[in-house]
Amino acid sequence: MSKIYPVILSGGSGTRLWPLSRAMYPKQFIRFFDHSEPSFLGATLKRLTTSAGFAAPILLCNNDHRFLVKDELDRAGIAAGTIFLEPVARNTAAAIAVGALAVLREDPEAIMVVMPSDHVIADEAAFERAIRKAAQVAATGRLVLFGIKPAEAHTGYGYIRRGVALPGADGDVFAVDAFFEKPDAATAADYLAAGTYFWNSGIFVLHARTFIEELERLSPDILEAARSALASAEPDLGCLRLGRAAFETAPSISVDYAVMEKTNLAAMLPLDVGWNDVGSWASLWEVAPRDKDGNSVQGDALIEDSTNLYVHSERSLVAAIGVKDLVIVDTPDALLVADKARSQDVSTIVKRLKASNRKEQEQHLRNHRPWGFFDTLSLAPRFQVKLLHVKPGAKLSMQMHHHRSEHWIVVQGTAKVVIGDTEKLVRENESVYIFATQWHRLENPGKVPLEIIEVQIGTYLGEDDIVRTDDIYKRAPEETR
Description:
Helix content: 10-25%
Distance between the termini: 46 Å
Structural class: alpha/beta
Number of strands: 30
Number of domains: 3
CATH class of the largest domain: Alpha Beta
């Protein structure tokens, strides 16, 4: 059988895990339980490795997250086959089409495993065995997806109804009889009682050529857009940027709607590996470490006479007395308190924030950049204070600002600073001042992180008041969020 190619989809925004998950730093990059543990994406990257005989992973992500993805690959010690940058979000069908076309360049009989980047798998060994079994079925020309036996009448998942057992698969791979949207509570209870309905995991094992043939038959416009976007792709710092004009023409539609619900080649393999898509705070609570009272606590908290809480504090002490079944998430710029049973509805808050053009749906006070990150410490109408954290060897662009001056104080490490035609080293407890309209650059030439307190003063302090030249990260002018 041909080599199996992992294709990882990392374009989601994770709105139901707001306020930790934001558009510019979504849930696949977050370490929810322990900062020494991998993120969801990091765990996904380590799931099917080249040392176990799988091909190097192919990743698809949006442009805003490209440096975050590369950081996760570096942390995991994994080299990607290709990182495709999606210029616009077009759901899963177009992304999987690009992945399939890419692996077919390598192997005309390739099998691909399509995985979201943000799922939890408790039994990794069993998952790998299931992948290999599904690959054997896919090699016969089937499009296989994994179904999860429901543990409860869940209303947050789509369902699959099991059909007849397929011959030659030991009686545990089935034709798909039908797909069903997320049900109401009564319908979900009926599905659970029937015993023939499974949660749709969103994980697929596909014979790439068969998938492309079915896509051409059922949704040719998606395939044409994917082919054109791949043909017009351009390299960008170790990534491959899909052609925008072509990719924008793809309908924004899921692979279920585009292919799986229409094809007669869909097969389902039941999966029992401790799967969770972590699609809400309630589902995160299910996989989190909990005490004897069912409380999961991350950060500083005092819990008194309370049960089944999820508490996450990044800012201050959280005290809870005499409550149950709540989600309490405290971040430096937003506090969420929700009934755990209503945690699926957090996305409605995000929609309201977006409609109001509020930054809390998009960014944290910590903003990640390819050179490191900055924390906003204080913000007022005419001044702003930040902490800049610059990675060893990293270099900001040569830049200037029309409306603000900046005062930099080095608090850790040594900075190489260029201001106009002058270059100097600025050491710990030393400072420099940069006037508005002066061209300047900051670099960390050392082997330890560089930390600088930056005080901005001016009439306008927005991140879009940056004019760049000579940017080693090749960012477009609009990449200033």
